[in-house]
Amino acid sequence: MYLADRSAPAGAKAAPGRGSGRSPAVASTVLALGTVSLITDVSSEMVTAVLPLYLIAGLGLSPLGFGALDGLYNGVSALVQLTGGHLADRVRNHKLVAGIGYGLSALCKPLLLLVHSLGPISVILALERTGKGLRTAPRDALISLSTPDELQGRAFGVHRAMDTTGALLGPLAAFLILGVAVDGYDAVFGVSACVAALGVVVLILFVPSGAGFGSGSGDTPPREAATPATARPNPVRLRDAAGLLRLPRLRALALCAVLLGLTTVSDAFVYLLLQRRTGMDDQWFPLLPLGTAAVFLLLAVPAGALADRIGRRTVFLTGHALLLAAYGLLLWAPDWPALPYLVLALHGMFYAATDGVLPAAVAATVPESLRATGLALVGTGQALARFGCSLAFGGAWTLWGTGPALAAAAAGLLCCAAVAGFVLRPTPPAPSVPPTPPAPSAPDPARRP
Amino acid sequence: MTRSRRLLVLAVALLLLGGVGATLVVRAASRADQPRTGGPATTAGAVTLTAGQDTLAFLGSGQGPQRGALASVPADAPDGTRTVSDLTCQRFHAAAGTGVCLRSSPGALAQDNKAVIVDAELRQVRSFPLAGTPSRARVSPSGRFAAWTVFVSGESYGSAFFSTRTAILDTRTWKLDASLEEFAITMDGREYRAQDVNFWGVTFTKDDDTFYATLATAGETHLVKGSISRRSVTTLAKNVECPSLSPDETRIAYKKRVRTGASLWREHVMDLGTLRDHPLAEKRSVDDQAAWLDDRTLAYALPSDGAADRTDLWTVPADGSGSPRLLTPGASSPARLG
Asked: At a CB cut-off of 8 Å and minimum separation 6, what does A234 contact?
């Protein structure tokens, strides 16, 4: 379908602005949002890195059952993302809603200094994640709205790479502070709050608002400046959001995101399986996510750019094939010393090939006025599916043990990837494809998967 | 706003926030060097773990240079001058000349957590990497076995989820059972297997094989009795956490959850013969693995009033009578060496 997007010349759409829209650089909005994400991730990963130590050693608490509400919260968080996305479209101000999300998370950091028991700490962390849920869709919408269609993959890749850089720097900063100040958890939380505030400042100063996008603020090339929607916007209603699912392309994408999400075993399980499989020392366990993140960071931009060139579908499906390969290695590979590196590399490549590529693909199917809603819809579906997979995988693990559970996940992933490959197969280039979105009435083989 | 104006605002924000952050770090760093004022008298010296000297060992608590330092006082004069050693730990326990010191130090990218086995003169004998943050530690009465529990984060469904991992080490053969979760479980007479099994809070008997611990699964906690040689555990009773076996091995002291879901525990003692239990006179919530000072008295740590990062040691009669009494302020991880 992304092939179809390419065949439906994006230039035609971006034409009214300036020329072909083939600007080599990444839009300044994307860089600004990437910086905001980088800073915010430094801030939140600082807290995440020291939280176990703080709860157990600092406060002397037993955090077992700390995540008991996690399951429930996953559902709430999904709804928050939908709300954030839809709200942003409704008020036509993506920056405002994203800013509220970033601001809420920033406010939570100093609050951590004030409470000393598990209940209030869980509430604050839940609020922090609510902020994250609120901002995700409007932020991705801002990225996609500031980037020409043919460069979406790369733009999301740049953003994800910057975001992951922050996630890697956060623990580094936190442990640096703890190295200087023994038990200086208050210092870590305080600095984290300052860093988060800086992120909000950068957002306010350097990210143009999504309202009447490109209407003069910042140096973003004004796209769609001549669209009638900007002149007299039609109000966005809930019904329009539901109507999005009538778009065959978006429906196909949402379906694939959910199907593949249902067979994507959560990171935590992957690391646990890897540790059991290789019998590696406990001390390496906390470093496993960093391996994935490092590969993700390095490959996010190339993978995004590749997706723009050869088609997002191909890259997205290849990403899942790489994940399948990682499952295969975990299941059947002999005990090579290189096994952990291979699995982590494949896992990181999976993220690089899918995490930014999916929103890039979604963005291309959703009209601008409903961009954040559409992104939130698919993101929520994927998140809920992944959570369902966690529950099912945990159950299968209990019933059958690790090997069969992973084998089942791998078989499921293979089937879902095959279905996704079929559903997302490129449509033959229609003679006169309407711009975005393809009209629901247009004959489309993907409508009945 | 023009570009230069925006950059100016950014520079001012950077300066302000950077200043606040730096101040916080400097303040926290200097706090660690300030000696504690007030509090019990201390003297630097050698703490030994040999039997027959009748002392109470514990870790210093609260801010200051002696935070986490192993200290000892005569058992009959807990308010006396503390002898403070160089060994610092997060959690400590010792018996019969063997000590286990769980230590957590900030590494470059993650915490560096270790279990250090020390001899009677606190010399390091061996050290083992840990998968998570130290929580509980125990040494068997003979000094042969050591057990520890750590909290591992992000091992289950959500990333903010914690689980425990409990290991038992034979210090004679250095055989390490890295996770009790590999032991066979018998629950209510049947073999039991589940993915959500967690163990914590081991306590040993004198026979160097039997131990008691907490097993959590399906939202409930159980007291289990286990055998190291048979690598198996059997459930005995419900709602029992952090058991601690009395010296005469007839009772366990443990924390009993007051209400499901709430982080509130009441310290209880259970008779292992009848499985009948009674609450102790301590009415505050105890979140610790208590230590028996003798067959009639328990010691445990409680947060100090108004200080989040400091605990005091308290003591209460094991039969439910009397009332809690402050044993010594600014201390944690009590162990009776006798």
From this structure: A369
pLDDT tens, residue by residue, A244-282: 888 888 999 999 999 999 999 888 788 888 988 887 877
How far is Cα A405 from Cα A327, in angstroms, rounded to an integer? 11
Closest chain B CA to residue A53: B133
Q: Is residue A225 part of a domain?
A: no
Inside any domain, residue A40: yes
User: Residue B166 corresponds to which tokens in the numbers above?
Assistant: 């409990």
**Which token pair is B121?**
């003169």
Phi-psi region of B251 (alpha: psi -120 to 50; beta: other; left: phi over 0): beta
> Cβ neighbours of residue A148 under 8 Å, at least 6 residues apart?
A10, A14, A21, A22, A23, A223
* DSSP three-state, residue B268: strand
Chain B nearest-CA distance from A42, in A, is 13
Contact A185, A57 (CB under 8 A): no
Structural domain of A313: 2-12+25-211+241-428
Taking only the tens place, the pLDDT of each residue in B37-60 is 667 788 888 888 876 678 999 999
Residue B203 has pLDDT above 70, yes or no: yes
User: Three-state DSSP class for A297?
Assistant: helix
Q: Enumerate residues 171 to 200 of chain A having a beta carbon within 8 A of any beta carbon in chain B.
A: 171-172, 174-175, 177-187, 190-191, 194-195, 197-198
Q: Is A392 part of the contact surface with chain B (CB cutoff 8 Å)?
A: no
Between residues A447 and A24, the one the model is more confident about: A24
Number of domains in chain A: 1
Look up the CATH number of the domain holding residue A421: 1.20.1250.20
Instruction: Identify whether A17 is part of a domain.
Output: no
Q: Within a 10 A sphere around the Cβ of A242, how many other Cβ atoms?
A: 11
Residue A3 has pLDDT above 70, yes or no: no
Q: How far apart are CA A187 and CA B105, in angstroms?
A: 16
What SS3 class is residue A398?
helix
Whether the CB of A52 is below 8 Å from some CB of chain B: the reply is yes
Here the tokens at position A235 are 């109000």
Q: What pLDDT, on a 0 to 100 scale, did the predictor assign at position A236?
A: 75
- At A154, list the tokens: 């790369």
- Residue B38 pLDDT: 65
Check: pTM over 0.90? Answer yes or no.
no
**Which of A158-172, A413-427, B216-230, B315-329 shows the lowest per-residue confidence on average (mean pLDDT)?**
A413-427
- Residue pointed to by tokens 């936190």: A174
Check if the beta carbon of residue A22 is closer than 8 Å to that of residue A327: no
Report strand pairing: B277-279 vs B190-192.
Answer: unpaired
Task: Report strand pairing: B241-245 vs B251-257.
Answer: antiparallel
pLDDT at A340 over 60: yes
Amino acid at residue number B207: D
Q: Whose CA is closest to A53, among B132, B168, B207?
A: B132
Asked if the structure places residue A35 within a domain, the reply is: yes
The angle formed by the CA atoms of residues A250, A254 and A255, to the nearest 5 degrees, is: 115
Phi, psi of B81 (to 5 degrees): -65, 130
**What pLDDT score does B36 carry?**
61
Cα A309 to Cα A300: distance, rounded to the nearest angstrom: 14
How much is the ipTM here?
Answer: 0.75
Which stretches of A109-148 are assigned E, i.e. beta strand? none
List the alpha helices (DSSP H) in A232-311. 238-243, 248-262, 267-278, 288-310
Average pLDDT, chain A: 81
Residue A335 exposed, middle or buried by CB count within 10 Å (0-12, 13-18, 19+): exposed
B156 and A117 within 8 Å at the Cβ level: the answer is: no
In eight-state DSSP terms, residue B78 is T
What span, in angstroms and rounded, lies between the C-alpha atoms of A365 and A282? Answer: 45
Q: What is the pLDDT of residues A368-387, one digit of tens each?
A: 999 999 999 999 999 889 88
Is the CB of B308 less than 8 angstroms away from the CB of A116? yes
Q: Which helix (H) or strand (E) holds A122?
A: helix A118-145
A·B CB contacts under 8 A:
189
